[in-house]
Amino acid sequence: MTRAKPRLTVIDTDPGIDDAIGILLALASPQFTIAGVTTVAGNIGIETTTRNAGRLLAFEDREDIPVFQGASAPLSRTGPEPLNLHGEDGIGGVALPDPAWLPESQHAVEWLANFLLEQPAGAVDVLALGPLTNLARLALERPEAARRIGRMIAMGGAIHEHGNVGPRSEFNLWADPEAAAVVVASGLPLVLIPLDVTRRVRATREFVETLAANVNPMAAMVGSLIESYFEGAANRESRPLHDPCVMLYALAPELFRIEELRLSVDTGNGEAAGALTISPEGSLVQVALGVDGPAALDLLARHLTAI
To answer: What residue stretches are annotated with the Inosine/uridine-preferring nucleoside hydrolase domain (predicted)?
Structure first.
């Protein structure tokens, strides 16, 4: 059942087309009170991900939500090359306004730690859409603050599915395996949303056309963002909506099937970097392994088209 009371929420992100869709969904949903957006390098460099976060907030005229720039590189290795999938600007060239204000001067991890300590324990949820570098640094540098997180929902990993950057590796965990390993082993209240689920929430061309024709500017913008995914992929009939599944789970966990698994993260330098392994020595994590895809897509459409 959808939460009746809004949850105080921080979005940690590397926008990113599907990050952008997830952020717009959160902005459209009264179930979230968004306290801030923290950025991380991932899909593209930190300056661009931070700018894109500001552009999305400017589109919705949400000057009340501050943006804090976070990690520009992984914990202990060289960062990945930017993904061509999202275009040079990271969001497929979709027209968005320039940021209406500058990001805050405080580093994302410092702000998040202080904010968590100011709020009652368990009152703040973190929705993580990119590499887990900021959250790993929080757990390592400010564990007393990290322990106050109510729930961390992160898109990342692959359990039984083939990876998207290697046979078993998904981009967010592959981009910073050491950070993923820290977060998975931290004991924090983590819900992981892997490719096993996100590949089953798929936008069709008909779905895109419906959003694009809607009178709500946010629905039309999301339609444009998804359409940019289809460009250059003429033979594809649908595209998975990875990061929005984080928000969809937060809105309606009953649409997802959760299993508790013991997981470890491969921190090697080979093709399995960032891969998840189920093992008795792993850390207990709540993992989404099933979803009612059509119902999740319908929920997304209802929130975006509400007037």
So the answer is: 10-295
Report if residue 222 sits inside a domain.
yes
Strands 202-204 and 238-240 turn out to be antiparallel
Model confidence at 3: pLDDT above 50:
no
C-alpha span between 168 and 273 (Å, rounded)? 9
Mean pLDDT of 4-24: 93
Task: State both tokens at 151.
Answer: 């729930």
Cite the active site residues. Answer: 242
| Torsion angle in degrees (nearest 10) through CA of 104, 106, 112, 117 | -120
Answer yes or no: is pLDDT of 234 > 60.
Answer: no
* 158 close to 168: Cβ distance less than 8 angstroms: yes
Give the residue from 258, 243, 251 showing the smallest Cα distance to 290. 258
- Is residue 90 pLDDT above 70, yes or no? no
Place of tokens 């999938």: 85
Please check whether residue 2 lies inside any domain of the structure.
no
Q: What is the DSSP string of 76-136?
A: SSPPPPPPGGG-TTSSTT---PPPSSPPBSS-HHHHHHHHHHHSPTT-EEEEE-S-SHHHH
CA–CA dist 32, 44 (Å, integer) = 26
Residue 58 scores a pLDDT above 60: yes
Average pLDDT over every residue of 200-224: 94
Number of domains present in the structure of the chain: 1
Reported pTM:
0.95
Q: Which H helix or E strand runs over 260?
A: strand 256-265
Residue 1 belongs to some domain of the structure: no
**269 assigned to some structural domain:** yes
Indicate the average pLDDT of the chain: 93
Sequence-separated (6 or more) residues with CB below 8 Å from residue 5: none
Instruction: Provide the residue range defining the domain that includes 131.
Output: 7-305
